[in-house]
Design a protein that fits this description.
It is a single chain. The protein has 16 helices and 9 strands. Strands 1, 2, 3, 4, 5 and 6 form a 6-stranded parallel sheet that branches. A 3-stranded parallel sheet has the order 7-8-9. Helix 12 crosses helix 13. The radius of gyration is 23 Å and the shape is globular.
């Protein structure tokens, strides 16, 4: 072989060597990301899977062709702590609302008893850690809508005793004592009774969830609450200007009091382009909910499926743009740059929202960890975002509750 040919071969090999050397860390990064993810507490603060439990047709222990959550897909995605939402339409009030909420609480507690090998009912941060140590999935409960307390603090205390650990002050409509972000204000935020509700939630160790509330309700709750606030499934208004999302000023105020915003994966809340297109072709979310209720009545699972079919058709027809799962990372990164890594987490809205492309169900969650690692996030900060921040907020609320319980 001539010298010039040898030099060419050497150059090719050298280039290949550099290429391989560059590729190896990327492979190592993927392996490290999986190690971090599957050794962490991955805590999601909002899923509407409860509605599926009520149907009598859904077996959470079996991989299902529909929806976003079941035990096999939670295991595959490393999701080992999940708040299951208790939800009914904000149009249902009084004793009927209380009864429907109790039925859903019973459904959640029943499924945990039936699948005790995999699930553990959790009401404290320590319970979540115990479930993780036992190789089980921690099941927690959040009440999505203050209308379900029936204007009765005694009912609120019953929910606390049954294990409810956050209450979203409103849903899409105002309730009797708080204004919603998607309704016309009537209370100027929280009423006097609404402020009493927040105080009693503090006493009972129930987190004050400000997803869905009006901006004024948020600031009222922030002023009254002695414990940090939770936004269980909201995203960033600076990226998608939707009233369900939080402004930068709200996020700063939330963080200043130790709270956390848990990013919602709903396409409307992730993407301004999608949000604009949705309003053009479908209108506001409250009006769409009313249409699905007319079609399905009180069957929440039917409503969710009808909405999913509706939006899928619009995307397939090109009337709505596609949204990538990577928008989730953009929202997380925005919060971190704004207030640091201690005040953001995961609030998917699984089984209750339209997921972005690439985050079709709980099995895809490791993508978030790998993406954050590739962006240069430290292992410690990733673990905070996956669940550590929420555990801290739970512990703070538990401490406030103990302090208030001993006061006369």
């Amino acid at each position: 072989m001539r010298r010039s040919a040898r030099l060419v071969v050497f150059g090719v090999c050298l280039a290949a060597g550099f290429f391989l050397a560059g590729a190896a860390p990327a492979d190592d990064l993927a392996v490290r990301a999986r190690q971090i993810h599957f050794s962490s507490i991955v805590l999601d603060t909002h899923a509407d899977t409860t509605q599926r439990l009520l149907s009598g047709k859904f077996d959470i222990a079996q991989r299902d062709a529909e929806g976003h959550i079941d035990i096999p897909r939670m295991r595959e995605g490393g999701l080992n702590a999940q708040f299951f939402s208790i939800w009914i339409s904000g149009k249902i009030l009084g004793p009927a609302a209380v009864q429907k909420a109790l039925d859903q609480i019973d459904a959640i507690r029943t499924v945990v008893r039936q699948h005790g090998k995999d699930l553990l009912l959790a009401a404290t941060a320590e319970d979540v850690r115990r479930a993780r140590a036992q190789g089980k999935i921690a099941v927690l409960m959040g009440l999505e809508g203050g209308h379900m307390i029936g204007n009765d603090l005694g009912v609120l205390r019953i929910y606390a005793a049954l294990g409810v650990r956050y209450i979203t002050l409103t849903h899409f409509y105002n309730d009797e004592w708080a204004d919603s972000s998607t309704d016309k204000p009537v209370h100027n935020g929280l009423s006097a009774f609404g402020k009493d509700v927040v105080r009693e939630m503090n006493r009972q160790g129930i987190l004050v969830d400000i997803s869905h509330v009006s901006d004024k309700t948020f600031y009222d709750a922030l002023e009254v609450s002695k414990a940090p606030l939770l936004a269980s499934h909201s995203s960033v208004r600076a990226i998608s200007n939707h009233p369900r999302n939080m402004s930068d000023d709200m996020i700063k105020a939330l963080a200043a009091k130790g709270g956390v915003i848990q990013i919602n994966y709903e396409r409307n809340y992730l993407s301004q382009e999608y949000n604009d297109a949705y309003k053009t072709v479908a209108g506001d979310v409250s009006r769409m909910e009313e249409q699905f209720q007319k079609k399905c009545g009180d069957d929440a699972e039917c409503q969710a499926k009808a909405e999913a079919r509706f939006t899928k058709q619009l995307v397939d027809e090109g009337k709505l743009p596609r949204v990538s799962w990577e928008k989730i990372i953009e929202h997380i990164d925005h919060v971190v740059k704004l207030v640091g890594p201690d005040h953001v987490g995961l609030g998917s809205d699984f089984d209750g929202a339209d997921m972005p492309d690439g985050m079709e169900d709980a099995s895809k969650l490791p993508r978030i960890t790998e993406a954050l690692l590739r962006k240069g996030y430290s292992e410690a900060d990733i673990r905070k975002i996956l669940g550590g921040n929420m555990l801290r907020v739970m512990e703070q609320a538990e401490r406030v509750s103990r302090e208030l319980q001993v006061q006369p």
